UniProtKB/TrEMBL annotation:
UniProtKB keywords: Hydrolase, Protein phosphatase
Annotated catalysed reactions: O-phospho-L-tyrosyl-[protein] + H2O = L-tyrosyl-[protein] + phosphate
Species this protein is from: Halobacillus campisalis
Name of the protein described by the UniProt record: Tyrosine-protein phosphatase
EC number: 3.1.3.48
Keyword Hydrolase: yes
Alphabetized Gene3D superfamilies for the sequence: Metal-dependent hydrolases
């Protein structure tokens, strides 16, 4: 498997704190069937700033350590950037790191409880600049859960989304799990990733998540998610179907 969202780089955000932690996370990733991972440390989220060149250098150092420890995992550089008003300037200044540094896909993180009003315009501007924005873990955003048309409108205009494996398996609660399934059913979910921070509270469950997809949607949907992860790593166009709206209805007390 390919995991396109992780916090495995040591000492730069709320993920791995030491290189030993990174090695431990890498072993857990391999045990879960992952052979390639994109390291996506937080950037511009109000607490952490991690710039392109620093991430690239630390990723190379981690790969060297993985080789020394004979761990069959390849780590690629990436970045999880919190949406902010100067994001386009960061892209143009080459401070924003695209996934696998291929100049194609850009992670965009919203605050957990809201979607800024300028998000639609910014995502459009990112596309005009020649990049493809991927909204990370929208299923955990309170405003999107309450007003699912927000995400529908963004996806309809060309944005992609990445759901979290733990959301699909219920580790963030039944409400988030239900909404995650609704996004898949509405063709508003294009990628799945671990967003792993450690091996305890925020670990890997990619195998379990893919099994959940297989049981509910069949082998073809498993193939779509797996294939799209490979497309991201290679900077190729994602497979996607036209999105439909998530019907706003009461389920498990969420609305």
């Amino acid at each position: 498997m390919i995991d396109i969202h992780s916090h495995i780089l040591p000492g730069i955000d709320d993920g791995a704190q030491t290189m030993d932690d990174s090695i431990h996370i890498a072993k857990a990733a391999v045990e879960d069937g992952i052979h390639t991972m994109i390291a996506t440390p937080h950037h511009k989220n109000g607490k952490y700033d991690n710039y392109k060149q620093d991430i690239i250098e630390l990723t190379a150092e981690l790969n060297h350590q993985l080789h020394i420890h004979n761990i069959p995992l390849t780590v690629l550089p990436g970045q999880e950037t919190r949406i902010h008003g100067d994001m386009m300037e960061g892209i143009r200044a080459d401070d924003i790191l695209t996934l696998n540094n291929l100049g194609h896909y850009v992670f965009v993180e919203f605050p957990s409880d809201a979607v800024p009003r300028y998000a639609k315009q910014l995502l459009f501007d990112i596309q005009l600049e020649g990049y493809q924005p991927i909204i990370v873990h929208p299923e955990r955003n309170k405003q999107i859960i309450q007003h699912p048309d927000i995400l529908y409108n963004l996806v309809s205009k060309g944005a992609f989304t990445q759901i979290t494996a733990a959301s699909l398996t219920g580790r963030f609660g039944k409400n988030v799990q239900k909404f995650t399934h609704q996004l898949i059913e509405a063709n508003q979910a294009h990628l799945i990733a671990s967003d792993a921070h450690n091996t305890e509270s925020r670990g890997f469950c990619m195998t379990d998540a893919y099994e959940e997809i297989r049981e509910n949607y069949g082998e073809s949907m498993v193939y779509l998610f797996a294939e799209n992860a490979e497309y991201v790593v290679n900077g190729e166009n994602l497979a996607s179907d036209s999105p439909s709206r998530v019907k706003k209805k009461k389920f498990l007390g969420i609305f």
